[in-house]
């Protein structure tokens, strides 16, 4: 703890020196600036000229002021052996007298000049420090009664929230769509409830379990559910709460957290976003010894120091597992790594039903349809879909949520709210109609694409003037080369329709171009779907749970060839999509006109018109 206070004592010492300098040097200098020393002869001349206003004699000095002096200066001269001085002053009309200064008690003088400023500074510093603590530490408050050093006793206190018993309010019944993760964590619950059977066989419980997965998949919820199932105290803290501006404070918080955990064992300690303090050490800080590294070192030491058999289980969550220090993830610290991935079709349906229990829903809602339409959604997004559906029902003055509410909620999450007041010209609406039908028509004519579910040209708040929604009939885990190529064809279908019908192109295909380029590049660099490069990894993915930043792992010459291959692949997909639209130009016109009039059509309506035989105009015979 002394190491923590040392920088603060330096700070207070500097402030004290500044105050003393102001008190004994600067302030007296300001007073001296209005006092001017003169000769005794000048003093006598002023008396003769009757310019002196007041005269005071103190000890061996004479202090006088002048009449009509705009500077308000006080003049000082020494006392001479002049017996006629009183008569001269009397004749000049000056006010004069002698001051006998009463000597102040030395103790009182020291108290006023030295200790009083110190007490004022102490009180002001304590008040400021309290404000700092409130802003930085949350519950980490100070009080004047907590030892010396302005209440610094709480500096190393952990800010962890403690839930005792079943106060988390969560159990495994509140978690859906993560059956594998629940199965892994159930073993920890069993150990906390029945440690004897593990000790009997000699098994050691993992000291820590690391929950990894994308944001919103329920990592924190699972940790709370473990504590709720086991009925043990639950310490919850974010990794960012360990990082402080004062050196050593983060390490002290780690020590205090584990001290509290040992006292309340058996218990669970949960550190959310552990990558904040657990990043790989690279020595880039101050001599490789910055505050974050000190905190990490202390965490590693504490994990080595506590005995897992005592019933203290450490859980942590992160969506950046690749950035963690290897010393943190090695066996003996975080022994178990539990993936918490995006839910599959069955998982999404279970999550939707779980959240739908809290709202009034129509009995005929098909949650399987909603689950299929929300492929790739996390648990948090699915909960948001249910809530958005409830809000839509209230907006329409209905007492229950119906199917169309949830379908519209999916579109709100994907593309935003409808821009009902948007003003779009008829020409632009027609261009958007052909653009969206171009996507849908290419998708319908390809064998390896998802069926069209809905097409709309109603603008949305996230920037889309229209969109085509495709929904897979079954959950898809693998992507074939043919499927990937035909996805690119569908992406290019909108631009192809603009070229074919209007002989011009617009900015409406910007997102399509981005997605097509991303997929084509992945086929070449990561999926091994290029004849030229074969099964060669030319690109690596970082932060796969946060969007997946990519970086090339090849020479500049190879990178140039990758660009050329990407361009060629997209051009090939574009040409084939264009040919499909040209071969079905009549249907393109018919469907675009239908969409223009209706603004929104379903996949069933689209397929009905597409498969309906074209009407051939009747020919008249000329005899």
TrEMBL record:
Regions crossing the membrane: 12-30, 107-129
Domain AAA+ ATPase: 205-344
GO terms assigned for molecular function: ATP binding; ATP hydrolysis activity; ATP-dependent peptidase activity; metalloendopeptidase activity; zinc ion binding
Xref: SUPFAM superfamilies: FtsH protease domain-like, P-loop containing nucleoside triphosphate hydrolases
A matching Pfam family: FtsH_ext
Entry membrane topology: Multi-pass membrane protein
EC top class named in words: hydrolase
Higher taxonomy: Bacteria, Bacillati, Bacillota, Erysipelotrichia, Erysipelotrichales
Binding site for Zn(2+): 435, 439, 512
Its EC number(s): 3.4.24.-
GO biological process, one term: protein catabolic process
Compartments where found: Cell membrane; Membrane
Superkingdom: Bacteria
Protein name per the record: ATP-dependent zinc metalloprotease FtsH
Cofactor: Zn(2+)
Active site per the UniProt annotation: 436
Function, as annotated: Acts as a processive, ATP-dependent zinc metallopeptidase for both cytoplasmic and membrane proteins. Plays a role in the quality control of integral membrane proteins.
């Amino acid at each position: 703890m002394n190491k923590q206070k040392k920088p603060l004592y330096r700070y207070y010492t500097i402030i004290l020196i500044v105050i003393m300098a102001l008190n004994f040097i600067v302030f007296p200098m300001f007073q001296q600036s209005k006092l001017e020393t003169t000769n005794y002869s000048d003093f006598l001349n002023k008396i003769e000229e009757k310019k002196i206003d007041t005269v005071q004699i103190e000890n061996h000095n004479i202090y006088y002021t002048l009449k009509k002096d705009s500077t308000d200066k006080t003049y000082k001269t020494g006392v001479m052996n002049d017996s006629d001085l009183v008569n001269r002053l009397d004749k000049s009309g000056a006010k004069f007298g002698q001051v006998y200064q009463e000597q102040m008690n030395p103790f009182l003088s020291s108290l006023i000049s030295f200790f009083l400023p110190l007490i004022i500074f102490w009180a002001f510093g304590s008040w400021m420090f309290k404000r700092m603590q409130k802003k930085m530490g949350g519950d980490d408050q100070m009080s004047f009664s907590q030892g010396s050093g302005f209440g610094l006793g709480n500096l190393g206190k952990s800010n962890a929230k403690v839930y005792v018993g079943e106060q988390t309010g969560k159990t495994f019944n509140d978690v859906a769509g993560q059956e594998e993760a629940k199965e892994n964590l159930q073993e920890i619950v069993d150990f906390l409830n029945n440690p004897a059977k593990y000790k009997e066989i000699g098994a050691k419980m993992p000291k820590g379990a690391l929950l990894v997965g994308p944001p919103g998949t329920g990592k924190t919820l699972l940790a709370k559910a473990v504590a709720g199932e086991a009925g043990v105290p639950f310490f919850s803290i974010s990794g960012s709460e360990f990082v402080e501006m004062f050196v050593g404070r983060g390490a002290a918080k780690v020590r205090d957290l584990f001290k509290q955990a040992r006292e309340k064992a058996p218990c669970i300690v949960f550190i959310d976003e552990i990558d904040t303090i657990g990043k790989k050490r690279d020595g880039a800080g101050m001599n490789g010894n910055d505050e974050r590294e000190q905190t990490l070192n202390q965490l590693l030491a504490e994990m080595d120091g506590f005995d897992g058999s005592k019933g203290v289980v450490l859980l942590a969550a992160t969506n950046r597992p690749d950035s963690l220090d290897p010393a943190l993830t090695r066996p003996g610290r975080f022994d178990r790594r539990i993936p918490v991935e995006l839910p599959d079709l069955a998982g999404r349906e279970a999550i939707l039903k779980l959240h739908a229990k809290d709202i009034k829903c129509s009995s005929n809602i098909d949650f399987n349809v909603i689950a299929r339409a929300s492929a790739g959604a996390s648990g948090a997004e699915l909960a948001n879909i249910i809530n958005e559906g409830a809000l839509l029902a209230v907006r329409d003055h209905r007492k229950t949520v119906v199917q169309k509410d949830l379908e519209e909620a999916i579109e709100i999450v994907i593309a935003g709210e409808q821009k009902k007041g948007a003003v779009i010209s008829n020409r632009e609406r027609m261009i958007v109609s052909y653009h969206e039908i171009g996507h849908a028509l290419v998708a319908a004519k390809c064998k390896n694409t998802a069926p069209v579910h809905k097409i709309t040209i109603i603008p949305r708040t996230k920037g889309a003037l229209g969109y085509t929604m495709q929904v897979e009939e079954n959950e898809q885990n693998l992507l074939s080369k043919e499927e990937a190529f035909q996805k690119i064809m569908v992406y290019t279908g909108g631009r192809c329709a603009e070229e074919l019908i209007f002989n011009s192109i617009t900015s409406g295909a910007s997102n399509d171009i981005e997605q097509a380029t991303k997929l084509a590049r992945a086929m070449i660099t990561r999926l091994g779907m290029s004849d030229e490069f074969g099964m060669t990894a030319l690109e690596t993915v970082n932060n796969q749970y946060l969007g997946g930043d990519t970086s090339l792992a090849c020479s500049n010459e190879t990178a140039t060839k990758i660009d050329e291959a990407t361009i060629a692949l997209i051009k090939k997909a574009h040409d084939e999509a264009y040919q499909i639209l040209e071969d079905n130009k009549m249907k393109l016109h018919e469907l675009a006109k239908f969409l223009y009039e209706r603004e929104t059509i379903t996949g069933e309506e689209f397929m009905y018109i597409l498969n309906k035989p074209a009407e051939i105009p009747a020919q008249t015979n000329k005899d």
